[in-house]
User: Fold this.
Amino acid sequence: MSKTDQRQSGEPIYETKNLVVDLYTENNVIRAVDECSFSLFAGETLAVVGESGSGKTVMTLGPLGLLPEGIAVHMRGTAATSRGDLLRFGGRRRASVRGNDFGVVFQDPLSALNPMRRIGPQLAEQACRFAGITASGTKADAVSNLRRVGIADPEDRYWRYPHEFSGGMRQRAMIALALASRPKILLADEPTTALDATVQAQIISLLKQIQAEDGLAILLITHDIGVVAGMADRVAVMYAGRIVEEGAVTDVLKNPVHPYTQGLLSSVPDLDTPIGEKLTEIPGTPPDLSRLEAGCRFAPRCFAAQPSCSLARPTLSSVSITAPTHKVACFVMQPKYQEVIG
Ligand SMILES: Nc1ncnc2c1ncn2[C@@H]1O[C@H](COP(=O)(O)OP(=O)(O)OP(=O)(O)O)[C@@H](O)[C@H]1O
Ligand SMILES: [Mg+2]
Assistant:
């Protein structure tokens, strides 16, 4: 039994089922997330990938109540931790479950850190509020957290403001803030996108080290297939608000089944790509999420589409009995695999 299979034989620590998120703008309703189900198990990293606007952020931050204010959000389905279904809780209870169970890391540290306040007291407050650290112990706790994420001279840094930190250090301070509440789940939305390659590698290795020490589950949203390959155990591929393929990283990256996943992977350059060679693009553009039609959303851009693809929406199911955890939502590619095993 693989490490991933062993983990999945236990209970998930976070699970969404048939999650739908509608965003109400002035003129229309955007179905940003449509019937998405995924499970996250202790100690694993699940990466969510997909092109810009595919719904990665809305699917992960929506149930936590962390979408920007000023837009009306309607959600249905479930998004549950051991404390219950986040979608059934009011704002205050949801904030409490979020603080207890989740640590959140964003692309921009200043969306989590208050630029007007010194770093240390922000960490101390979080530990006091959610981790039950008594007031007298919060400073020592925050200093130890800053040290743990690799910030040199943490006693001094405790009193500094975010603008006194470099970009990489701010990212580390945000990770310390996310860890201050002792969460079970770390939700990282593009945590390394704004960083240069060396700092990016340091942050990834820090996240892996923390995960190994604390047994944290990480929900990692990224555009970067290299980061997925280097860090994730499983990956969910999103297209136009739906998960179209999901499975162990090795299965999905080595044997992508959905035409969208195939296109996404072949549009990524690797070290063997000759300089100047044109990368493969997926033709066309994603659909307008406020005017969705019946059928597979990828069909208009898909090299394998059949006339029947525009009649009904495919749902996720196993690509074969030999790889039951590798799932794909495609009428055309999936039967091919079933024929092979049948
Ligand atoms: N505040 C908002 N107002 C209007 N539409 C929004 C808002 N936030 C997200 N959307 C829409 O919801 C859909 C999903 O957006 P989301 O931010 O989840 O995509 P994403 O996959 O995270 O993209 P990116 O990779 O660019 O971060 C998109 O069509 C987007 O335009
Ligand atoms: Mg996003």
In short: The longest helix spans residues 197-214. The CA atoms of residues 118 and 159 lie 5 Å apart. The longest strand covers residues 29-40.
